[in-house]
Structures are given as structure tokens and as C-alpha cells.
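Worked example

This section walks through a single chain of length 518. The input is the sequence exactly as stored; nothing has been trimmed or padded.
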Amino acid sequence: MVEKIIKNKNYLFVLMFLLILFLRIPALYHTIIDIDEAAFAEFANKWLGGAVPYVGVYDNKPILTYFFYYIIFYLFGINNLFAVHVATIFLVFVSAIVIYWFIEKITGIHEAIAASMFFIFLMHTYEPKYIATNTETLYTLPVLLAFVWYYLVLWEKKNLLYAILSGICVGISFLINYKAGIILAAFGIFGIYLLFMASDKKDELLRQIKILGSMCIGFLIPVCIAILYFYNKGALSEFINLGFLYNFKYIQSGMATVPYLKAIARLLLFVLCSLPLWIIIKQLWVRKSKLKTDKNILLILIWIALSIFAVMLGWRAYGHYFIQLALPLSLLGGLSIRHVPTIYIKRSYVYLTVMAIIFMLSRINIPLTYHYLGDSNALSDFAYKKVASKVQSLTSPEDTMFVWGSGAVAYIYANRRCSSKIIITDYVSGRQFGVTNEDMGENMNKYISYLRHEFIYEFMKYPPAIFIDTAPSGYYGYDKFPLEKFQELNAIIQKNYTFHITIDNMNIYVLNEYIKKR
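Given that input, the structure is written out below as C-alpha cells.
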């Protein structure tokens, strides 16, 4: 049976798809897996409604993250996170197919099967929220294509058009997650290595300049398209300052507030979850002579090292950050199985299967799993569903609402649009990202000061029908950011809103003018 599957690619691909589908079943019945999905979805909803990104709606991620949600919602309807999760299944599947095709082309069938199976396991073997449709998952396919096309032009002497295509894919990845740009750095470092090792350094220098220069041209194509789009919309300044430069402040604040030991612990946990691949790296390191005859392995090791740097940058090291390690690790594993005993490969499959099953079980009810693990914010998902249900009964679909707190999920559950461009209150409250509720403090910088001013002006001009104050609940540390601390906003609420009801320690206020109209 195994030999039949190996010989018939169709059987193998069906098996791969069914495995991915099985491991992602929880994504098909959890509307929101990670709070980030709610922010991406509401951003796309408002964009579809006519808002200009970073002007009429704000979050700090690169534009193509939201564009993915935008396209899915455009085709299948707003708030359709089920469609988003189905599309993600196919995205992971296509990536696995490309890995198989690539590794089979340069080595053999057994290596290709190993690489694709390692990839499938590593894309699902970490914390429960790991399977959310996040930026790292979205840029996996374009980064993979960038690597494949770079390989073709580097080793198979393909036309420089492949280098341009590789650069375009890096540019697309960069506009999904800025950290994806590290692959370009990996190519650059590897190019320097090849130059150092070349017998004819002048010839190799010209070759590397042509390849990397062509890649840079390709990289600039999607970046320039994005710049032209925002220039045409009159939003170039916001795109650069809020959509790009703000992220340096985000990283800086993490370095100052998030304990580095926490990041190291998360890295060690990921290493444990993917242990067989790290043992392969150790064995390759012991056999250093092999690296001299397999430059592909050296390139991937450089890629892995830079990916670890990207994961740890800012010390937050959220679970989904580690997805960027899944691709190079799986490629390395596939290329390296000829250097390790067969029995070890079989044991690796068993180990990764057990880990995948454990995490699959942890995703049966994701909020409850996090609750039992001690996450003080986990039950907020149930609270927001109750609040959203109440909002639906009080309002019509065209009415707006605003949640004071990390409550973008409420907009999705209620199917009511956020009244403000600020869909995540942290950008005006100063709440720190990646810090526990107990250690929560206030983060202030010029961007937050600017957004506070914009928020108050907008709130007064376009008051929401419903205002939700989550501070009393303490979820996401908002008990340290009560309304009373923000005098302008509190004055507006006290003057123009009427308290309606408290649900799970979340206070619901209704606009006085809205009450009169009803």
C-alpha cells in the first residue's frame, strides 16, 4: 500500500490534502481562532465598505494581509471567516505540493515525501491558535516560490526572469509581513559565501550582481504598486508612517517591556515540538564536511538562523511567529534524510504524529484549552459572543458600535461595523502588546498621541449607536485603562450615552439620540 502511494502521486496528494484537512478541522467550526483574525476581518470589512486603508481604518500590519481577507469577503461575503479558513487549507496544501515538486526535482521521491510531510506537521504542531489565518501562514507560499525560483536561476542557470519572479514573490511576502524580507538577506549572505569560495571571483561577482539586482527589481514591483495605490488614494503618508514606520516603535516597545526569558521559553517549546528536525541540524553540524558538498543545506541553515532572529525580534515571540521556521526546517529535513539513518526518519514521523494529535485534541475547544492552561483572557470569547448577541437585538445591521478594549471579535460576532478607524483600542489606550495582564503598563509614543487625537475627533463626529466598556471585566488588562483615565472620552460617554446593561462585567451604553429615534 505504501509503495502504491509513493508510485502514484495522485494517491499521495489526496493523502496530504486529507491530512491537512484533518489537522485543520477545528478551524472550520471556530469562527475566530486568534484575536488577530478579528482585526484583519474588520479591516477588510471596512475596506470593502469604502474606507481607505490606514486612513479610514487602521491597524499596523502590511496591506496584503488585509487584501487576502478583502478578496475572500468580496467573493464570499463579509465576515465569512469560514471561507477564509477553507482558503487557508488550500494555501497550505498548494505549498506542500510545491515543496514535493521542488525536492523531487533536485533529489528524489523519498526526500520529497519527507519534506512535504515535515512541512504539514510543522504547520500544525504548536500552540492551539497556531492554525489561525495569520500573516506567517499567508506568506509561506510566496516565500517558497521565491526560494524555488532563486534556486533555478542560481544552480540551473535559468533566465534572469526567474530572478525577477523570485524578487516579486519576496516583495509580495514583504507586503504580507515585513519580516519576510529576511529571505532576501539570506540570499545576499549566501551570495557573499559563493563569491568567497569562487575560483574566478570577478566572474562570480558579476553573476551575483545580476541575480540579486534582478531580484531587487522584482522586489520593487509589488512595493511600487502599493506605493502608487496609496499615492492615488492620498494616503501615502499614512501608509508609510502608520503602516510601516510604526512597526519599529512596536518592536522597540517589546524590547523594553517583554521579558526576554519568555521569548526564549517559547523558542525552546517550539524546538521541543519540532525536535526531530533540530536533531537533523545537529547531525549535519557534526558532519560538517557534508556542508561543503551540499550548498543548498548551507543556504537553508542561513535562512533558519535569520528566521530565528526574526522570531525573537522584539521578544514577543507569539506562537504564530514560529510558522516562519516551518518552511526552511521542512526543506532542510527533506534534503537531509540521506545523511541520517532510516530508522531515525521513521521515529521522526512517529514523534511528529504524536505531537500533531496532541495539538489536534487541544483545539477541540480552543478558548477552553487556553482557560485551563491559565490564560486569564481565554473566556473573553464567550463574553463577547453574549455581548454581540445583545448588540444585535438592540441595533440594525447599518448601525455602528465601538468596543473599549481588545474587542475586535465583538464586531465580527455582532456583524456590526466599528464606528472608528481604530478597530483595536490599544492604539489609543496605550495598552502594551505581548505583556501579561499583571505586568500591563502604558505605552506612549508620537503615533499613539496622533491616533488619540484622531479618535476623539472621529468619535464626536460619528458617534456609535452602542458603546461597550470592557474595562470592568479586566480582560486583556483593560482594568488598568478605565474610562475615567481618559477624560475626554469619558465626558462624551457620560453626556451622550445611557447605561443599558452589564453582561459578564462588560457595560453596554446606548447613544441617547439613538434611543429617541427608536
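What to look for: The first strand starts at residue 400 and ends at 404.
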